[in-house]
Amino acid sequence: MATVRLHHLHKSYDRGKTMAVKDVSLEIADGEFMALLGPSGCGKSSTMRMIAGLEELSGGEIWFNDTLMNRIPPKGRNVAMVFESYALYPTLSVYENLAFPLRSAGKPLDEIERRVREIVGILQCEDLLQLKPANLSSGQSQLVGLGRALMRQPNVFIMDEPISHLDTRLRSRMRSYIKRLHIELGYTMLYVTHDQEEAMALADRIAIMDVGQVVQIGTPGEVFHQPASRYVAGFVGEPPMNFLECQTEQNGGSPSLSYKGHPIPWGSSEHTRAAGQVPRDVVVGIRPFYVSLAGERSASHNVPAEVFVVEPMGDTTVVTVKAEDTRIQIVGEQKMRVNSGEVLWLGFDPAHLLLFDKDTGLRLG
Ligand code: ADP
Ligand code: MG
Fold this sequence. Notes:
Blueprint: E1 4-13, E2 18-28, E3 33-37, H1 44-52, E4 59-64, E5 67-68, H2 74-77, E6 79-82, H3 94-104, H4 109-123, H5 138-150, E7 156-160, H6 168-185, E8 189-193, H7 196-202, E9 205-210, E10 213-218, H8 220-225, H9 230-235, E11 242-251, E12 254-259, E13 262-264, H10 269-274, E14 281-286, E15 291-294, E16 301-312, E17 316-323, E18 326-333, E19 343-348, E20 354-357
Parallel strand pairs: 3-8, 3-9, 6-7, 7-8
Antiparallel strand pairs: 1-2, 1-4, 4-5, 9-10, 11-12, 11-14, 12-13, 14-20, 15-19, 16-17, 16-19, 17-18
Magnesium ion binds next to helix 1.
């Protein structure tokens, strides 16, 4: 296994017309599970294909431990790569499909047997060994494909949206197998997804991409609680973070915050410390879990809002309201009784307000 280091990686297509990857630097520790998260077209697959040696670099360096990989062909890199679709050999049994990579590498029979049993044990699919691919469900094929990619011990194990086409239930099951594989095998893993929930659930750290660039690298907790920008804050978390265009004012030592003239209680020590640098126009971010509704106006609930829709989710209720012209979502208790059309008062937990620069989108303070 290897530490993977990407050093100022660039990739352009069509003689520079499409800049797919722009100055990406990233270090993935030996045995780490790193997710690359971003919307479709942001350069995730291009980055992975360069690591695997399937795509030429337009600039930068790729290192596995102390070896520069730029000129090493794919075969010499020992990267295992799993995509959305696996082509299993149709005439071979599951056992033979799994054994294939080791057989073709000329490994002894007892080693092949041991390895197949190990992988099948982790994936809990002993009962499939004698079946042919035609008799497998899509989830089972996926599992076997995953297993086959793992047979040889790779330097790096890359998965590019491996389960995004499966239905929700199967996806969450496959997700737990993938996490378990990492725990048991300890490979250096790079996992590409556009699904923030998948990245949060699986990875030790997440690198978030936006149009060819990595905009934040952090643990799931860090990108969720300390997003570097409005973009990251809005991408991670479901329902997504709410954003309100607000104004700040300095009255003596204590700064105040208002949304279209409605005061919003603010002033935790962090904000007060940061207030010296806070511009007048800011974007306030708050997660749906930290917004509450009240029937009466009060010091804590000062912003009027009309209930747009109420969605009962079982344990919780998701309420969407309109405050002036902004749509805001609230995750509340299951027993919350509100109806569409009602006018209520919004409260924002002051300890969970994040402030972003209105122009750059960067987090303030
Ligand atoms: P992602 O995997 O995040 O969806 P990609 O790396 O596939 O992103 O693509 C990044 C950008 O590069 C996109 O604009 C895409 O259209 C473009 N692109 C990818 N592959 C090629 C290619 N072979 N030729 C030209 N443009 C490409
Ligand atoms: Mg892709």
